[in-house]
Amino acid sequence: MVAQTSNKKGGLWGIVKDTEEEIPLEQVSVRLLAAKDSALVSFATSDSIGKFRIRNLNPGRYIVSLSFLGYEAVYKNVSITSQNRWVNLGTVTMNPSGILLKEAVIVGKVPEIVTKEDTIEYNADSYKTRPNAVVEDLLKKLPGVEVDSDGKITAGGKEIKKILVDGKEFFTNDPKVASKNLPVDIVDKLQVIDRKSDLARLTGVDDGEDEKVINLTIKKGMKKGWFGSAEGGYGTQNRYLFNGMLNRMVNESQFSLLTNGNNTNNMGVGDFGSGRYSGGFGGAGGGINTSWFAGTNFNAGKSDKFRVGGDVSLAFSDQDSWNKSQRQNLFADSTSYDNSEQRNRTKSHNLGVNFRMHWELDSLSTIEFMPNFSYNKSSYHASNESATLAGNAERDSVNSTLGRTSGDGHSFQASGRLTVNRKFKRKKGRQLSINFGYDINRTDEDGMNYSINNLYRLGRKDTVDQTTQNKVWGGTYRATVSYIEPIFKSSFLTFSYEYKYNFNNADRFAYDLMNEAKIDSAYSNSFRNTFQSQRAGVNFKTVKEKYIYSIGVNVDPSRSESENLIDTARTVPSRTVVNVSPNLFFIYRMNKRNNLRFDYRGRTRQPSISQLQPVSNITDPLRIRTGNPNLSPSYENNMQLRFNSFKPETQQSIMAYMSGGFTTNSIVNKTTYNSETGGQTTMPVNVNGVWNMSASFMYNTPLRNKKFQINSFTNLGYNNNIGFVTLKKDGDSQRNVSRTFNVRESAGITYRSDWFDIGLRGNYYYSRTGNSLPGQNSQDIMTYGGSFDGSLHLPCSIDIGTNFDYSGNKGYSSGYDKNQMLWNAQASWQFLKGKNATLMFKIYDILQQRSSISRSVTGNYIQDMEYNTLTSYCMLQFSYRFNAMGGKRNSDVKQDSRPNRHKEGYRMGPPPGGSGRGYKIRY
């Protein structure tokens, strides 16, 4: 029996950290040597959390050698025996070698992109940005990442809702604060991560709430001490900006103070009021924005003990927006056209407060508490002009509207989550979690609505003149219990149950000023709504070295009811619905750098209260919207397949992604058309036949000499949408299938050297939409363009940079096919001791050709829209940065005399334990 046991192989593992800052060290070289002759037995590298593992070791005595660039080598003696086959080295700390930067040499190029199991990791220094650039400037250069004019970030087609800093919350659920305020030069790596929700990661039970987040890892030298910056600028057209940042970091604790203000469309925080009001709050998109922001964020404590964090932010925004649009309404036997123009001025004040607590009472028990609060006060004034034209050759006028609206409102929201998690000592893997959550909100607004509506075919003019009072208040309470039971060595059963209670109350009263200010019942309603849902689920999960899979099913019964206090005929009877939602998850690890992942998830979507209520919103009498109490919940089926590959020896990175989905009982809008007035009434209905599929491919690799880097991002998509349109002659509706195929390609090449950087990129987008209705031509649009980005690094710390973007389009409505050449340039000079100060002059949109257009395609209409946007201006900026990390000022650090050598994405420093002679790193 002893002999049999001795033949079993063992292994060792541990975590490696920096001695001074206690941070994990990634890609540390771990060599296992035979004790008798120092022969190499095995090899490993540490991962992103500093963890390393070596398996399949025979009993015997070994030497573990750990080495890393810029650190002193560490040696550990270990013994593998039949009684102690697995050895835990615990936390191994490494000391910096203490070699001054002036003795450093270039030894190898850091990979630009690394693809991992659920992460795409970009090396920040590989992407050249202008002096004083913020994280958003870096995001705009990354393949597969897009940032729109409002600052919304999408990666792989999915919106980023959160940005973390070193894995910790940074201004909860508002990625704009990090993207528009944090400087690029503190960022080491930017990671785009697909992950489960906070609750799922804590409890180990999948709640179906996946999210895509960005994590910023901070450079090693910026994690202990003080650093900050101050910047101000003024330019033509009275453009101005100012911002300041102060950071204090000590190991795992961090404190940040941020402030900024500008009228250059760089709103550094989200608007909490967006979507809370029923009127014209939030503007029409685009526009010119003036904003101010001040906030503080902190994280303190130990990650494995007691940790607290939070943030407070104050913000103001003033948006002046204008847009015009042309919509082609699709009918079975003809078309009509809606032309409109709108001007909107919105002012918004915001307060946000968030708190986070993570407390590990012991090695088995954990408590998390996360309360949040936000308050908004907004006002708006809008004017609009619109007309409906017949689809004949003469484009006869059917109606026209001239109107104005205004309103003032305030709202608040308070939410929170308390989670208690308990592991069981007697059986490893057994776990019980209890979660409580709440979300309460209230919105109050007063408004005015005035419009003159000309109905030319009836020879009639209608006037609406009223004031409105809107109050909406409600909340959600939920409780969840989950339990994990290990049944085999690497397999688990999970059980979960959730109960959720939601109440939503709405009062809207309209007073007709043309009729003695009496309440107008056609425009008024008072609803009391409740929605109760339960979810019971069971999952089976297996975790192996090469693969992980999980399969399960959820049962979701729900009950909803709605009561109208003004008109009982509008009451929605109570209804009970039961849905079954399966899920499947599978990961296959081919090796450390190649993996394949598949997900399938079914999910029920309940119709909203506004979609169910049989109440007509006739704020615009020519475009009426009403609810449908007969709606059924929709059921979404979504599948994803992803392959990641990274080759260290060539630094080649590949990501291939496919997704698809179909929806049963999909909720779409059904529009009926009144040929006499030109008015439209829209109501949601259930349909089947809505589905989509897409495929993406990303490729990145350096060329042989490493100074050239090429990358490509390709996307193909197909959408099958259903809509209902009206036969103008008899008013009957007919089903229309809208099929859209699109292809997108973005490819680029960069060259980086000591004295200059050049980047070239081309992009192409094509979309073709066909409709099943007879007589409807296919709609083809095309956008194309390219960009040039160059920087010249001159002596005396002078940088000159320029970027040129060309974009063109075809297939839009008349007046919307526009070509655009956007040319920006800047020159900067860094001076003072340590190059702490920067003076920069920049010119935005030199050719004055900035424009903003978009197209929306549904089964009912095709709409082209154009917004106002920021035009050409010049600005002179001054900034000062200070760095007192580790007790040293940045002026004490020796600077490399070669321009931007330290920004080129190269590893620098002496060989581990060496004297400073150069050597090549092999990945």
UniProtKB/TrEMBL annotation:
This is Outer membrane protein beta-barrel domain-containing protein. Pfam families: CarboxypepD_reg, OMP_b-brl_3. InterPro entries: OMP_b-brl_3 (IPR041700). The lineage of its organism: Bacteria, Pseudomonadati, Bacteroidota, Bacteroidia, Bacteroidales. Residues 889-906 have a biased composition (Basic and acidic residues). Residues 888-923 are annotated as: Disordered. Residues 423-754 form the Outer membrane protein beta-barrel domain.
